[in-house]
Design goal:
single chain; 143 residues; alpha+beta; Aminopeptidase; 5-stranded mixed sheet; 28% helix; 22% strand; globular; binds coenzyme A
Length: 143
């Protein structure tokens, strides 16, 4: 099967990307509105990657870097394009970008409703952390 093209996100992708995330079953929140997403991209727009086939987004991965750690968010592939290596290609390209930036460690979070995806990451060299309790605090609920 043909390899898909991987490129950086552009603002005109937003609707297609949001629909892709919904179709892939990602949990979406206030942080995924166009405004919040584009605000996040002020810092490292090159870390938001789109896999496209015939100019249509079929996969995404959203990277971010806080100056210390890199993060992997919203790895998602349209159901009809899954199991073609697209998710792996997106992760590899993002990891290479982090390596070029000299990033030491990258993190990702798996929602427990999606726990089966842990084995996917383990095959790619990720390991589960049992020494950390993640805590969150909501500061804002408006858009
Ligand atoms: C997880 C996901 C991004 C993988 O993308 P993909 O392009 O289908 O995966 P690849 O083609 O690179 O890899 C295929 C391999 O991963 C395995 N795999 C795919 N999805 C998996 C899942 N949800 N859980 C466990 N293994 C999975 C396949 O069985 C296959 O294994 P094999 O190589 O041993 O045959 C995609 O299934 C997806 O969008 N899932 C829904 C959203 C999601 O859960 N995202 C992760 C958020 S943390």
């Amino acid at each position: 099967m043909e390899k898909v093209n991987i490129r950086t996100y552009k603002s005109s992708d937003y609707e297609a990307v949001y629909n892709l995330w919904k179709a892939a079953g990602l949990y979406l929140s206030l942080s995924d509105t166009r405004k919040e997403l584009h605000r996040m991209l002020d810092k490292h727009p090159e870390l938001f990657l789109i896999a496209e086939e015939k100019d249509i987004p079929v996969g995404t991965v959203l990277g971010s870097f806080d100056g210390r750690r890199g993060y992997v968010h919203h790895l998602a592939v349209l159901p009809e394009f899954q199991n073609r290596g697209i998710g792996s290609d997106l992760l590899n390209v993002l990891e290479d970008k982090y390596r070029e930036m000299g990033v030491i460690k990258i993190h990702l979070f798996i929602e427990t409703v999606n726990a089966e995806v842990e084995s996917y990451y383990q095959k790619k060299g990720w390991h589960r952390r049992n020494d950390i309790i993640m805590m969150s605090k909501i500061l804002r609920t408006d858009s």
